[in-house]
Amino acid sequence: MSQVNRIAKGLVDKNKPLTFEFNEQSYQGYEGDTLASALLANGQRLIGRSFKYHRPRGIFSAGSEEPNALVQLRKGAYSEPNTRATSVELFEGLAACSQNHRGSLKHDLMAINDYFAPFLTAGFYYKTFMWPKSFWEKFYEPMIRASAGLGKLSGEPDPDCYDKGFLHCDVLIIGAGPAGLTAALTAGRAGARVIIADEDFLPGGRLNSETFEVDGMPGAKWAAQTVQELSTMDNLSLMSRTTVQAAYDHGIYSLLERKTDHLASSSGKPRQILWRVYSKRAILSAGSTERSMVFANNDRPGVMLAGAVRAYANRWGVAAGKQVVLFTNNDDGWQTAYDLLDKGIEVPAIIDSRPTVSLKAPEGVQLFSNERVIDTRGRHGIQSIILSNGTNIQADCLAVSGGWSPNVHLSCHHRGHPQWDERIHGFVPGGELPPGMTVVGSANGVFSLGAAIESGFEAAKSIVGDLGFAKPRETPPKAEDEPAEAAAFWYVKESTGRAWLDLQNDVTSKDVVLAHQEGFRSVEHVKRYTTLGMATDQGKTANILAMAVMADCSNKSIQDVGTTIFRPPYTPVAIGALAGRSRGENFRPVRHTPSHKWAEQAGAVFVETGAWLRAQWFPRTGEKHWRESVDREVLQTRASVGICDVTTLGKIDVQGRDAGKFLNRIYCNLFSTLKIGKVRYGLMLREDGMAMDDGTTARMAENHFVMTTTTANAVSVFRHMEFCHQCLWPEMDVCLISATEQFAQYSVAGPNARKLLQKIVDPEFDISNDAFPYMACGEINICGGTPARLFRISFSGELAYEIAVPARYGHALMEVLKQAGKEFEAVVYGTEALGVMRIEKGHAAGNELNGQTSAQNIGLGRMVSVKKECIGNTLSHRSELNKEDGLRLMGFKAVNAADDFKAGAHLINPGDASNTENDQGWISSKAYSPSLGCVVGLGFIKRGHEREGEAVRVVNLLDGTDIEAKIVSPHFIDPKGERLRV
Amino acid sequence: MIINHPLLGPRDSVEFIYLGDAELINRPNWQGKEASDEAIDSAIGRFHNYLYLRDNPAGEHKELWYHEQGDRSWLVVTRNTINHEIVKVELAKDVAGRSKT
Fold first, then answer.
1. Any A CB within 8 A of B39 CB
2. What is the C-alpha to C-alpha distance for residues A972 and A969, in angstroms, rounded to an integer?
3. A876 → chain B, closest CA residue
4. Is the pLDDT of residue A181 over 70?
5. A527 three-state secondary structure
6. Does residue A937 share a domain with residue A918?
7. Shortest distance, CA B89 to any CA of chain A (angstroms)
8. Is residue A42 domain-shared with residue A147, that is, in the same domain?
9. How far apart are CA A90 and CA A54, in angstroms?
10. CATH of residue B57
11. The last residue of a domain, from among A717, A739, A761
12. Which contiguous run of DSSP H or E holds residue A664?
């Protein structure tokens, strides 16, 4: 079989034949073909099986509105389901297969579903398959899922890459049909920066599919010539294969450009680019979509839109059938008969639903006016049609024109409601358009060619004038205004068989009538109940027909039935395009500390903390379990000295004459009284009185503080402080800057911490206990002149320091510390050992400062100063936050040292039932303490501060454990803090 | 959306963090040093209203946006919540300064 239906040249290049594959059979087409036109040229009418009933389906349209001809395109990991054959540009080696059948396409075993149609009506899954109840999950649902559907995912990662980009323009023109091209020409010549985008690979829109003339030459030639001129303009960019998907606020549009979809291989280049376009004005010239009419068995292969039938003949030189019958309710449909006859295709009859038709039937064509098609016959494709007067006509193609619907979609993306236009029997853009948008051509219901061109010209002229460009003096291109009379005719009531509205989701007029009978009156409800318009084509060819049926059921006008809301995207977008480069390791930025490489080389296991990667522990050879590494790191730190990278803690530099006063208001405790060279722990509240964050802040100079925040809240605390300064107290003389990334910071903790540091701190700096006591800070030099900051603070409970150096010295400092620590067998520890030591010491951290705990809850109620104004102190006085039996942070220890419990477990008094009423609190953090040889926990318990020594049960109903425990001080080691001060 | 930053010109809204009602600028007085119980209660009432009670107008709304991916300015943006039209953009510190005097 070789291109039996190729009749004329059209706009394909017959010198460039292309070989392609459909269902593993080889075919030939030409450059310029779509997969659909090439399949039709080869006489392939059956393309796939329908969603629900597995009905045979063929090609219905010639554009992106296609509901039927969906194919699985390409192979292996490149395979893409539900690709519209009408939009797929043919390339050498293209491979496609049909979807949704078991066995061969022609003999689909699932076609039996069609016989069960009475059981598969609207909302069937709410009504049938209900009993026995247990059958739904195990039997009915899997069965329905297996038999319904479209294509299949490859199940492999998408091997292509995608990109994102940004563009700016004065005027964005959406659609390169006659109106769009005219607008582009006018705006471009005036000097405006123009982007004109079109989803097709050949600009020109319907001009390429019609035989009309513009400026005395064939429309397609005029389009090509215009494109030629546009391509010479530096201020204009013509983007073909680019669909404008969405209209966002303030002139921002989303465009999807298909860069390599028309090539056999993307060769590593981005397959598609998602553009974000910033425009001052937009011209919507998106054209219109033809609709069908509703009659029995209007879904058979061979039933096609009339405009598509002549597009295949004119643009691709393909006859959609050998005997094409036309069924129309408007003048435009007749053009199909004229064009086909012109190319020698037999048109036995024209059926026009209108009672009186002013057009004259061409010679040899039988005209049936005031008649309707009531049914079609044929197994895998149409063979004959039956008219309302009983006439039976042989035909292998039925071209149907139910009129044209303007493509109003983008004009409605700001929830504008389209208006019904009686003149064209369709919805036109109405209500509030996206600001800056002008709609022209047939998208605005201007259907005749001459008028469409003129509307494009006038819109562009007025816009360039508004934007301050010289108004063009030329006149618009000339074209005829063809007859475009149309009548309102939607569905053939004499039809008794099932008549399709939504071909893709298999929704018939009976489903809509049934939905109405069952009380679904709103168009939005009918949509969801019947699934009409919810397929991948979003009902582009179906919705208006369904509204007409609804209008008829409820005796309303179509305007009163109304449309569903139009939402982006205009056509389906691959998830990969939305993700762009943000996938795999580039899913989001990852932050590394300056000594990350060092940790990597030391074999660290990393953990994500926000965007940071932090060393979690450093396994040594022979250690089989993470606990072995962590226990070793903890014990060695407490026995001698440990080093930990704490760079990720937030660092905020606070300077200015009012810096101290400002910090008084940020923290609940006082900072203006802090002496220079000293550090203080600070607790920050939210305005509602809950704890927000904590950390230490050092006073480096009279007007200079360095604040630390937790890793998790570094960004939000800085934002909060900027808010407080700019919005609440702009009169304060204070400057803030985040210095988190400017300094690498390491904790050196353990009894030998000072000895280790003394080896690297330059001798002129005395860091003895007397000269540099607990909570001291200062600027020092290390390693012979390298500037550093030293803070004597401790999270572990040991004698400890944090040393900060400019980030570029971080890696080197880690090496120096490790080297200097050799004689003390210094250990490097990760976040896990850090966490164990802070639990042993009883410091609150993220699990305790979870946004639901007050200063009182964490045992720091007395820190909240009542003598000064600060964020959160007023509302922290609320009685609910100051209840006598409020929760307090306490320590918990199992009575039997071998018992384990989990964070999240609840605390229940001995003898009480384990239920919500008896809930006393919960465990917030727990760790195995190698120092104590048992599990220790921190948690919140009612009246905890009065209950030290009491027994309590740690209950976990999820794993069924119930452990006897004792309430203890949260400070498991060194409760008096003696180790800190040696 | 595009926010016309008073210092930097038009910027895409993705550079900003949204906070909400610009009434947050008008933080009430706290109760003061030697406050009586009644004074504390009325301060709690004022802060309660300040923190929790918001107008939610369908129409023009003054709101706070933070230029986090930019110059860290807090802005007061007057935006129509129905159609997202932005009619005015000011530096929050100017607005706050004015409301204090």
1. no
2. 7
3. B44
4. yes
5. helix
6. yes
7. 14
8. yes
9. 27
10. 3.30.2270.10
11. A739
12. helix A659-666
The residue among A166, A168, A248, A250 with the most chain B CBs within 10 A of its CB, best to mutate, is: A250
Which residues in chain A touch residue B98, judged by CB atoms under 8 angstroms apart? Answer: none
Is residue A696 domain-shared with residue A686, that is, in the same domain? yes
**Distance in Å, alpha carbon of B58 to nearest chain A alpha carbon:** 15
Both A655 and A629 in one domain: the answer is no
Confidence bin at B33 (pLDDT 50/70/90): low
Tally of domains in chain A: 7
In-domain check, residue A875: no
| C-alpha span between A323 and A705 (Å, rounded) | 88
Predicted-complex ipTM score: 0.97
pLDDT the model gives residue A504: 94
Please give the Cα distance from A492 to A499 (Å, whole number).
9
Cα–Cα distance between A905 and A903 in angstroms, integer? Answer: 6
Identify all chain A residues contacting B84, using CB atoms and an 8 Å cutoff: 249-250
Name the residue range of residue B55's domain.
Answer: 2-27+37-100
A-to-B residue pairs, Cβ atoms closer than 8 angstroms: 76
Structure tokens, A216: 């005395």
B96 interface with A at CB cutoff 8 Å: yes
How many Å apart are CA A657 and CA A672, to the nearest integer?
11
From B20's Cα to the closest Cα of chain A, the distance in A is 12
- Residue A510: give its domain's CATH number: 1.10.10.1100
Residue A730: list chain B partners with CB under 8 A. 93, 96-97, 100
- Contacts by residues A593-596 (CB-CB < 8 Å, ≥ 24 positions apart): A593/A645, A593/A647, A593/A648, A593/A744, A593/A810, A594/A647, A594/A744, A594/A807, A594/A808, A594/A809, A594/A810, A594/A811, A595/A645, A595/A647, A595/A744, A595/A746, A595/A810, A595/A811, A595/A813, A595/A814
pLDDT higher than threshold 70 for residue A1:
no
Q: Does A875 contact B47 at a Cβ distance shorter than 8 Å?
A: yes
- Cβ-Cβ contacts under 8 Å, A248 against chain B: 1
Same domain, A182 and A260: yes
Across residues A420-431, what is the average pLDDT?
92
Question: How close is the nearest chain B Cα to the Cα of A745, in Å?
Answer: 25
Distance from CA of A496 to the nearest CA of B (A): 47
Inter-chain CB proximity A722 and B72 less than 8 Å: yes
Interface test with B, best of A417, A719, A874, A880 (most B CBs within 10 A): A874
The 10s digit of each residue's pLDDT in A870-921 is 999 999 989 888 888 899 999 999 999 999 999 999 999 999 999 999 999 9
Q: Give the closest of B17, B50, B96 to A726, CB-based.
A: B96
The CATH number that applies at residue A901 is 2.40.30.110
- pLDDT average, residue stretch A541-546: 93
- What CATH number did the domain enclosing A9 receive? 3.10.20.440
Burial of A629 (0-12, 13-18, 19+ CB in 10 A): buried
Whether A205 and A229 share a structural domain? yes
pTM summary value: 0.92
CB within 8 Å: A723 and B19: yes
Collect all residues of chain A within an 8 Å Cβ-Cβ radius of residue B12.
252, 278
Instruction: Give the sign of the dihedral formed by CA B37, CA B42, CA B43, CA B44.
Output: positive
Q: Does B32 map to a domain?
A: no
Domain of residue A716 covers 650-739
Alpha-carbon span A765 to A283, nearest angstrom: 72
Residue B45 belongs to a domain: yes
Close Cβ partners of A580 (under 8 Å, ≥ 6 residues apart): A162, A163, A164, A274
Question: Which member of A249, A432, A727 has the closest CB to residue B96?
Answer: A727
Three-class DSSP category at A778: strand
Total number of domains in chain B: 1
> CA distances (Å), A370 to each of A291, A323, A355, A425, A962, in order?
19, 22, 4, 18, 84
Q: What is the CATH number of the domain that holds A358?
A: 3.50.50.60
